[in-house]
Design goal:
Elements: E1 4-10, E2 16-17, E3 33-39, H1 71-76, E4 86-91, H2 97-110, E5 115-119, H3 124-133, E6 141-144, H4 152-159, E7 163-167, H5 184-201, E8 204-210, E9 229-234, E10 241-249, E11 257-263, E12 266-269, E13 288-295, E14 298-310, E15 318-321, H6 325-339, E16 346-352, H7 364-376, E17 384-386, E18 389-390, E19 396-397, H8 402-411, E20 416-420, E21 434-438, H9 441-448
Parallel strand pairs: 4-8, 4-9, 5-6, 5-7, 7-8, 13-17, 15-16, 17-20, 20-21
Antiparallel strand pairs: 1-2, 1-3, 9-10, 10-11, 11-12, 13-14, 14-16, 18-19
Helix pairs in contact: 6-7
The structure holds thymidine-5'-diphosphate (TYD) and magnesium ion.
Residues 91, 93-99, 130, 133-134, 262, 264-266 line the site of thymidine-5'-diphosphate.
């Protein structure tokens, strides 16, 4: 008989300590350590020994995937759902996780598959109501109001589903532990149990996980390393567009994104996202520039707006949404040092349209163009797209996937694009637009502003 011991676990990062601390040494969060009791009974081995297999005797075929019914979602998953995989769908409460998975269940059921939907959050009646609103009515979607994860394999044996949806991991528990559902040890234990079932029974499982900022429930961060795929569902609640982003994928590339729109009939795919991030009927105004940012394997054309105003009281303000604030500061410092613009005597506000967060360094040039355009009160031509990374020395550095970006810009009907100099690498003749190569900020400012 093992004895029960207690320990303190950080619900932000999973750090463990035998005594309570105000600040977590792992992630520096305050007040995040919760007491959990665990049994230190050793795990019992039940399985027989298995023989190791030589690598070349294993089949090298790609696992057969099946479609989620939404081609955009499939792309984020790396080409569809892999049987035997565990996929974590994380996101803020109310963002649409349950809606998305119920829709996927409906589409997969229509393709002749069986789905087990385990809900610990909503009553079956609530799910039924949502399903009828979404037009889903299949006899191969089985709903269950169950929170005990140890019974999962029995339900799977009975129903033989192809896909299992667990909504959400924070509401289920394993009776092997005494801690409450949603605590870090329960999250870990239940996820590991589900993972084992997924692998052993070769079933694909979606796990819903809430991300909460106030920390009342442990975030899915502590689960990321256990599962096969992590997909985050992001967006602003009062904005109808939602982004799906793969943060980890054992079966495909990460950083693929998909754009969905929340409508009265649930989530709808947006196959041509570039149209969404550009304001319709744009008029010429200073401070607006268009950039082509690579999001996964796809270039997106996005509008950046800057407002430079004379300094209010105190320190200059730098308010940014959609890019890292340090990047804006860096670009402002380069503009000030290399060209002598006195931006340190100004407040600078910068906004990326559509609520996306841009990490691609190629948007530097667009940021600089928007800031300078507002500072100098000179509107930029609205048929122009800016591509280029700015180095500290004021050079414009080459970017990756230039050809892909140019094709998208051409397709969207732009007439002019500013790109970094890349001798011999540009096939200008294949596009209908003017392509201007710039080598430095000086060169750029001379020809554009
Ligand atoms: P939900 O899927 O319950 O979010 P989560 O599971 O991530 O907590 O999404 C709920 C929100 O979506 C709710 O505010 C209502 C909205 N919604 C629509 O706008 N249209 C719809 O067709 C549905 C089903 C929900
Ligand atoms: Mg939900």
């Amino acid at each position: 008989m093992g004895k029960i011991i207690s320990k303190f676990v950080c619900h932000e990062c999973g750090y463990e300590t035998p005594k309570w601390l105000g600040k977590c040494p792992g992630c520096s969060a305050w007040n995040s350590l919760l007491e959990e009791s665990i049994s230190n009974k050793p795990l019992r081995r039940t399985a027989e020994r298995v023989a190791a297999i030589p690598l070349n005797q294993l089949s090298a075929e790609d696992s057969p995937r099946f479609s989620s019914g939404l081609s955009e979602f499939d792309r984020v998953l790396g080409g569809g759902i892999v049987p035997g995989s565990l996929i974590l769908l994380g996101g803020d409460p109310g963002i649409g996780k349950s809606t998305l998975l119920l829709q996927v269940a409906g589409l997969i059921a229509a393709a002749g598959k069986r789905i087990l939907y385990l809900s610990g959050e909503e009553s079956l009646q609530q799910i039924r109501l949502r399903a009828s609103r979404l037009g889903i009515n299949n006899d191969t979607i089985f709903l269950l109001n169950e929170q005990d994860i140890d019974l999962l394999h029995e339900y799977i044996n009975d129903l033989d589903p192809d896909l299992i949806i667990i909504d959400s991991i924070q509401t289920v528990y394993s009776s092997k532990l005494s801690s409450i559902p949603g605590s870090v040890s329960q999250l870990r234990e239940s996820t590991a149990a589900v993972m084992q079932i997924a692998k052993k029974m070769d079933k694909a499982v979606f796990l819903v996980g809430h991300v909460t900022k106030d920390g009342s429930l442990a975030g899915p961060k502590v689960l990321e390393h256990i599962v096969d795929v992590v997909v985050y569902f992001e967006g602003e609640k009062n904005f109808s567009f939602r982004l799906l982003r793969a943060a980890k994928n054992r079966f495909g590339a990460t950083d693929e994104i998909a754009l969905l729109e929340m409508s009265g009939q649930g989530l709808v795919e947006v196959p041509d996202p570039s149209y969404v991030f550009l304001s319709p009927g744009r008029d010429i105004s200073s401070g607006t520039a268009i950039v082509a940012s690579m999001e996964g394997s796809r270039p997106l054309l996005i509008e950046i707006q800057a407002l430079v105003s004379s300094l209010g009281a105190g320190y200059p303000r730098r308010m940014v949404s959609g890019i890292d604030q340090n990047r804006l500061s860096l670009i402002i410092a380069v503009l000030e040092k290399r060209r002598g613009y006195t931006l340190s005597a100004c407040d600078v506000y910068l906004k990326v349209s559509g609520g996306v967060f841009l990490k691609d360094p190629s948007v530097d040039l667009g940021i600089a163009a928007a800031v300078l355009s507002s500072y100098l009160e000179k509107p930029l031509a609205m048929d122009t797209v800016f591509i280029g990374e700015i180095s500290l020395s004021g050079q414009i550095r080459p970017v990756s996937f230039l050809d892909l970006r140019l094709r998208e810009i051409d397709r969207m009907g732009y007439k002019r694009v500013i790109v970094p100099t890349s001798p011999g690498r540009l096939a200008k003749s294949s596009h209908n637009m003017e392509i201007l190569e710039v080598k430095s900020l000086d060169h750029f400012i001379d020809i554009v502003l």
